[in-house]
Amino acid sequence: MFKALAFAAALSLTAGVACAQAPNDAQIAHIAYTAGAIDIAAGKQAIAKSHNKAVLDFANEMVRDHTAVNDQALALVKKLGVTPQDNPTSQSLASAAAAEQTKLAALSGAAYDKAYAANEVAFHKTVNGALSGTLIPSAQNPELKSLLETGLKLFQSHQMHAEHLAQSLK
């Protein structure tokens, strides 16, 4: 649980950075894509490590849904002729996620499953907060804003699913 809280704290700090600097659309696209890629990697790790059907079902859902949204995001930035812009928020997200994935990799069995589920709860809470509080309000392009809003609805359902999964593993 501590690991998930530390990851959430790191993400909260990075969301604050985005908020302080009012990210532009190219930065927002990169942040959103990075968050999706992080959850895809986490889901793939869970698929490789877990033997729990509920965890595997959830992980497969994360890989499927985040891949679909990232594919839509790539298609949109291509259509708009926008190059996603790397930024300190994306870099901090990636760094915190890599550290968390290393910590999770050292776990196995029920300990891994519980830590993965707790991390998914913390991750979705933080990303959903950043989407609703910073990224969506800062987005200037209506199509980007719409994609982020659609993603937020999906990711809110992921958060609820992660919360139920975490509760079932206690």
Report what the structure shows.
The structure is a single chain. The protein has 170 residues and is an all-alpha fold. It has a single domain, classed as Up-down Bundle (Ferritin). Helix content is 87%, strand content 0%. The chain has helices spanning 2-21, 25-49, 53-80, 88-105, 109-138, 142-168.
Order of helices and strands: HHHHHH
Nearest-integer average pLDDT: 90
| CATH fourth-tier homologous superfamily | Ferritin, core subunit, four-helix bundle
Distance between the termini: 11 Å
CATH topology: Ferritin
Report the count of strand segments.
Answer: 0
Helix-and-strand structural type? mainly alpha
Q: Uncertain runs with pLDDT below 50, 5 residues or more?
A: 1-19
Largest sheet descriptor = none
CATH architecture: Up-down Bundle
Query: What is the share of helical residues?
Result: over 70%
Q: State the CATH class.
A: Mainly Alpha
Alpha carbon gyration radius: 15 Å
Number of domains: 1
Individual helix count: 6
Short description:
With 170 residues, the chain is mainly α. The chain has helices spanning 2-21, 25-49, 53-80, 88-105, 109-138, 142-168. It is elongated and about 45 Å long.
Blueprint of the fold:
Layout (H helix, E strand, L loop, with lengths): L1 H20 L3 H25 L3 H28 L7 H18 L3 H30 L3 H27 L2
Helix pairs in contact: 1-4, 1-5, 2-3, 2-4, 2-5, 3-6, 5-6
Supply database-style keywords.
170 residues, mainly alpha, Ferritin, 87% helix, elongated
